[in-house]
Recover the amino acids of this structure.
């Protein structure tokens, strides 16, 4: 997973511009509707304090702040005389509307998308990051609906897979787990066909420390094992003609060497475009180079469907 730089702005920089033009009404019952704007303006300081809370808790790595009373947001306003007070509960739909406005009118929305490494989803390191995932889901934690550090550039599929789940997963702005080897990639040649499997590293499976739990949850939620397997197979077929040509244009030994050299060049390209060592591209290509190194001439020719 790619580690991303945190957004360089906070709620303070856009809240007023977002809420002040709002005309949205909230139906209290069949006959009564109110403007939600003054209630949202009144919540400004709560959004700010929760944003600070979010950041300090994530930095200190405690999730204590995610308690149930964050599910609904109560706002009180006084009338002009200050004598009467009215309280309404803004539910997740009201706050969702705030996020919809953020999405439609704010340049900050685009600036969140631009935090993705080369426009790529940090969760899967493959697809375009053209959506925003709420790290802590906005339905469950509406108060973090527009908290910039809770907004993660993501691809459509990863965003869908994650959905409303709020399990412990890796946070791309706060956690860097790339020193740990998440997977083992296995390659087999069965019936002259390449079969790729990814397995979670056994020491992660057996461990219950917080890093291992987050890595396991991340792999599970984003279906990384099966997607990595499918994408690696596609990567193989993307280059098979190039490799077959290299192999055939030289003698067996040099041909194999040239194929492995090409794989190593591709690994460098992926590394230079900031793919982590846990990305499927690096894991698969490294294992493929090892597999080819050990493969007999006969197996190599059958895999490349070379006939004499
Ligand atoms: Zn993705």
């Amino acid at each position: 997973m790619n580690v991303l730089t945190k957004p360089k702005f906070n709620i303070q920089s856009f809240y007023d511009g977002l809420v002040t033009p709002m005309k949205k009404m909230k139906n209290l019952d069949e006959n009564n509707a109110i403007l939600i704007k003054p209630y949202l303006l009144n919540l400004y300081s709560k959004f700010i304090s929760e944003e600070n809370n979010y950041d300090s808790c994530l930095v200190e790595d405690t999730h204590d702040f995610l308690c149930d009373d964050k599910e609904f947001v109560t706002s009180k306003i006084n009338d002009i005389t200050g004598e009467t007070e009215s309280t309404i509960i803004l539910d997740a739909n009201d706050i969702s509307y705030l996020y919809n406005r953020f999405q439609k009118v704010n340049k900050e929305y685009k600036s969140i998308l631009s935090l993705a490494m080369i426009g790529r989803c940090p969760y899967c390191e493959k697809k375009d990051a053209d959506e925003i995932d709420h790290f802590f889901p906005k339905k469950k934690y509406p108060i973090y609906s527009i908290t910039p550090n809770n907004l993660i550039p993501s691809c459509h599929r990863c965003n869908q897979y994650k959905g409303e789940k709020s399990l412990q997963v890796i946070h791309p702005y706060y956690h860097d787990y790339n020193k740990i080897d998440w997977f083992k990639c296995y390659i087999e040649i069965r019936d002259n066909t390449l079969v790729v499997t990814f397995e979670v590293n056994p020491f992660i499976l057996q461990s219950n420390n917080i890093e291992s739990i987050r890595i396991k949850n991340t792999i599970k939620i984003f279906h990384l094992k099966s997607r990595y397997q499918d994408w690696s197979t596609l990567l193989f077929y993307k280059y098979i003609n190039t490799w077959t040509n290299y192999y055939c244009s030289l003698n067996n030994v040099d041909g194999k060497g040239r194929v492995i050299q090409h794989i190593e060049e591709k690994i460098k390209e992926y590394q230079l475009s900031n793919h982590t060592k846990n990305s499927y591209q690096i894991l698969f290509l490294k294992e493929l180079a090892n597999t080819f190194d050990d493969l007999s001439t006969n197996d190599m020719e059958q895999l490349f469907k070379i006939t004499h």
User: Anything to note?
Assistant: Residues 121, 123-124, 127, 154-155, 157-158 surround zinc ion (CB under 6 Å). The two ends are 44 Å apart (CA to CA). Strands lie at 25-27, 33-35, 73-78, 85-90, 131-134, 151-154, 183-190, 193-200. Residues 11-162 form one domain.
